[in-house]
């Protein structure tokens, strides 16, 4: 029976490798990824807002991120990114040793000319995007900033497939060696209503709908050939500068030790738990696919808890370039002509109040590929390539 046992153990090992950690969370995803396909909102938008609004007559007046000081730190010009510099997705691309992921709307409009379909991935993320259809919000009288929802972004991807390869084996090879970054998406499904002072009790009702939308997108991506997907959860939004000013209260017991709003962080954790449970369900349905949870919540929370440990000197209650100043209401905000940012954004976590600085995004990204904040572990180092 010895040969039988050996075959059995061998099969078990194969299964474990294929499951990429759904059996043991200590195993890691060890493929050498060649490109990234990204879906999401302003946390990952590398220029779709810019190219998508280029036909609007007064785009730069309406959209702050099309003006300096957005982009001042690394690019030295606005790129449409909602930060002073690079985003988490940019640091992931750098870590992989691939070019920064180009925005779909720039490629589609022909304005980005040096995109190579079989070599490079594409970024479909658009600032303001929601997971749910915009009609869901319109019906409730909630303002949704655009119609570039997750399902629209998925349609863009599906329409692009023929330009990648016309053979199913070619497509399988391309998609199989790609990393799919599905999110962060869904945050705006809660931000848009919260901005209009809808209650946490109300937005909790949207959680299953949002997760269902994300789950369905993941299923569709796996169906066409995605093999490794990274699915980020929500940030600790109770630490968000904008919410700290919007929901400011003299009641000390509403805040945690870091000065964050407990109720909003509790909501974000609840959402992330639900998302994680759904990913576990998907892992069982797709045992040969690697579905990685990216814990943006805890990777960001450690910065809010001990900023100085990460070289950040400014308190979370101050943003480098606020979009609006609650104490001094005026039309001038970050991105308005003449508005200048703080001298050194690298000393801040909040950039414009909704979004974070490049410095914060870099630390959060490092927490994903160097730290413990992905499950199973996201290994972008490529050193194990020969073993696969
Ligand atoms: C989204 O689409 C709907 C229906 O086509 C349209 O009425 C609405 O104005 C659009 N919203 C935005 C923000 O573009
Ligand atoms: C697949 O076929 C279409 C239509 O014939 C063509 O436009 C496209 O370039 C082809 N894609 C590849 C990767 O060859
Ligand atoms: C202060 O906040 C706590 C926690 O949310 C709540 O239980 C308590 O009733 C609040 N106190 C006042 C005076 O509003």
Automatic annotation (TrEMBL):
Superkingdom, natural source: Eukaryota
Record GO terms (molecular function): hydrolase activity, acting on ester bonds
Signal peptide stretch: 1-20
InterPro entries in the record: GDSL (IPR001087), SGNH_hydro_sf (IPR036514), SGNH_plant_lipase-like (IPR035669)
Alphabetic keyword roster: Glycoprotein, Hydrolase, Signal
Keyword Hydrolase: yes
One Pfam family, short name: Lipase_GDSL
Family listed: Belongs to the 'GDSL' lipolytic enzyme family.
Name assigned to this protein: GDSL esterase/lipase At1g28600
Gene name tied to this protein: LOC107495006
């Amino acid at each position: 029976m010895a040969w039988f046992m050996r075959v059995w153990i061998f099969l078990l090992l194969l299964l474990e490798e294929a499951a990429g950690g759904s059996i043991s969370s200590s195993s890691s995803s060890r493929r050498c990824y060649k490109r990234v396909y990204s879906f999401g909102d302003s946390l990952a938008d590398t220029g779709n807002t810019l190219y998508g609004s280029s036909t609007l007559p007064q785009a730069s007046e309406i959209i702050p991120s099309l003006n300096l000081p957005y982009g001042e730190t690394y690019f030295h010009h606005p790129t449409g990114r909602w930060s002073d510099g690079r985003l988490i997705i940019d640091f992931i691309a750098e870590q992989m040793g691939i070019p920064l992921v180009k925005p779909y709307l720039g490629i589609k409009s022909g304005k980005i000319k040096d995109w190579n379909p079989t070599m490079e991935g594409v970024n479909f993320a658009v600032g303001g995007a929601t997971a749910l259809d915009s009609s869901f919000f319109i019906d409730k009288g909630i303002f949704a900033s655009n119609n570039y929802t997750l399902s629209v972004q998925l349609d863009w991807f599906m329409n692009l497939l023929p330009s990648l390869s016309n053979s199913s084996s070619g497509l399988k090879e391309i998609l199989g060696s790609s990393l799919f970054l599905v999110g962060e998406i869904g945050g705006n499904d809660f931000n848009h209503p919260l901005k209009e002072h809808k209650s946490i009790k109300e937005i909790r009702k949207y959680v299953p709908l949002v997760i269902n939308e994300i789950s369905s997108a993941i299923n569709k991506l796996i169906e066409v050939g995605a093999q490794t997907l990274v699915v980020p959860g929500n940030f600790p939004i109770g630490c968000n500068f904008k919410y700290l000013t919007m929901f400011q209260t003299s009641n000390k017991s509403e805040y945690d030790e870091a000065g964050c709003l407990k109720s909003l962080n509790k909501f974000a954790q609840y959402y992330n738990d639900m998302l994680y449970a759904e990913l576990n369900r998907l892992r069982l349905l797709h045992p040969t696919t690697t579905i990685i949870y990216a814990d943006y919540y805890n990777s960001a929370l450690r910065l809010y808890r001990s900023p100085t440990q990460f070289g950040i000197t400014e308190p979370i209650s101050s943003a480098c370039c606020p979009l609006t100043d609650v104490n001094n209401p005026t039309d001038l905000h970050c991105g308005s002509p003449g508005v200048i940012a703080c001298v050194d954004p690298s000393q801040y976590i909040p950039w414009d109040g909704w979004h974070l600085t490049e410095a914060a995004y870099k630390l959060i990204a490092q927490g994903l590929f160097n730290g413990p904040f992905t499950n199973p572990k996201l290994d972008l180092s490529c050193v194990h390539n020969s073993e696969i």
